[in-house]
Amino acid sequence: MKGEIDQLNWTSGNSLTLLNGVNFFSALCSSIDSAEISIHLETYIFCLDKIGLKVLKSLENAAYRNVKVRVVLDGFGCLSTATLISKRLSSAGVQCRIYRPEPRYLGRFIPSRRRLRRLHRKVTVIDSNEAFIGGINISGNFDQTEDSNSNSNLTVQKLDFAVKIKGPLVYYVVHAQDRLWLGLNWTKLHFKSSVWRYMKFLRSRHDIKTNEKQLNCQKAALVLRDNIRYRQTFERVYLHAIKEAHNEIIIANAYFLPREKFIKELALAVSRGVRVRLLLQGKAEYRMQYRATRAIYRQLFLSGVEIYEYMPSILHAKVAVIDNIGFIGSSNLDPFSLLLAREANVIVDDQLFVENLKHELEVAIQNGGHHVEQITYEHRGVLHRIVDAFSYRMFRFGISLTGSTNDY
């Protein structure tokens, strides 16, 4: 039986460019400003800071040029900005939709499993032939840190990545966006024959033709996660790559709290002689998640996994290099991404791209990674142990409320 990776809809003839938090927004705004036909942007967070206002202005200007612009914002991630952004975009002629808007007033205090299912993917497509996918939200993406020499606060870029795509893989991205857009507009549709023909078009296809002479011939696949068709697709692909690894595994993940079977596969990889390194948050963005992750360090140490905490700024990346395969996208390895959220990731099988991603991770580990040693971890204070254990238990309780405890 073929492995999960072999069953993906691989496409060749792509041109892939690795982007980080420094150069992502200049590339994104440049493409938006050059758009001639259409723009479709989806994001979890859209802040109205300096960067967010710049992207917003580019979207408005595109609409004024008669470019068809569609924007989807998550109702929770954009809770404080969605209304204002929607009004501004609508005034410019942009079609804006809110994914699962949060209840108003006292309704926000009523527990609902449905409200936990968020749009966490960050995807933009320009003119149906260029796509951006990764973990970078529309925000300044900066972290305030203290300079030990001058005791002053500096703005340091969060460690995060995205990929710019040209080529046949973009078709699958367009397909995914169109399906979501159709769902968000379902009640407004008039079911004429043209609508049914359009729905037929939205079915998955496997006959995408490539023009490898015009592009870099890079091989890649789109891997989604949702709560219907692709519930565990991304996780299964990840686990399969770990099972097949022979040399090394480097995972950089902002929120690392995977299932038990994921940790067991990492342990088995180490037992086969594979070097496994994790680059995790050293500066906590959300304290409870950070503490819950530290609660599983001992299990990872006993398995022979190396743990590094990134210290210069907040680590927000969701990437990995497993031998010659690269993973980049919006999925964390935690219950939110693996059980609840809509996610979008790109799996890359291209030596040059993967070497470039590996180089970025190696630099991050060498220049900013604090090697957490087991002896130091074991001798942390009693209070730290209590807080870590409590945070982990609270996460397990939260998972039970979703009805998806599984192997957690």
Helix content: 25-40%
Strand order of the largest sheet: 4-3-2-5-6-9-1-10-16-15-14-11-12-13-17
Structural class: alpha+beta
Give the tally of structural domains: 2
CATH architecture of the largest domain: 2-Layer Sandwich
Percentage beta strand? 25-35%
Task: Give me the Rg, rounded.
Answer: 21 Å
Describe the global form.
Answer: globular
SSE string = EHEHEHEEEEEEHHEHEHEHHEEEHEHEHH
* CATH class categorisation of the largest domain: Alpha Beta
Number of beta strands: 17
CATH level-3 fold name of the largest domain: Endonuclease, Chain A
Sketch the major β-sheet.
15 strands, mixed
* Mean of residue pLDDT values: 89
Number of separate helices: 13
Low-confidence stretches: none
CATH superfamily of the largest domain: Endonuclease Chain A
What gap, in angstroms, lies between the N and C termini?
A: 27 Å
What is shown here, in short?
This protein is α+β, with helices and mostly antiparallel strands and 408 residues long. The protein contains 13 helices and 17 strands.
Describe the structure.
The structure is a single chain. The chain is of the alpha+beta class and 408 residues long. It folds into two domains: 22-140 and 169-201, Endonuclease, Chain A; 222-402, Endonuclease Chain A (Endonuclease, Chain A, 2-Layer Sandwich), CATH 3.30.870.10. 37% of the residues lie in helices and 25% in strands. The strands form two sheets. It has a 15-stranded mixed β-sheet with strand order 4-3-2-5-6-9-1-10-16-15-14-11-12-13-17, sandwiched between helices. The chain has a two-stranded antiparallel sheet with strand order 7-8. Helix 6 (233-244) runs parallel beside helix 7 (260-271), helix 7 packs parallel to helix 9 and helix 8 (287-294) packs across helix 13. The longest helix has 21 residues, at 382-402.
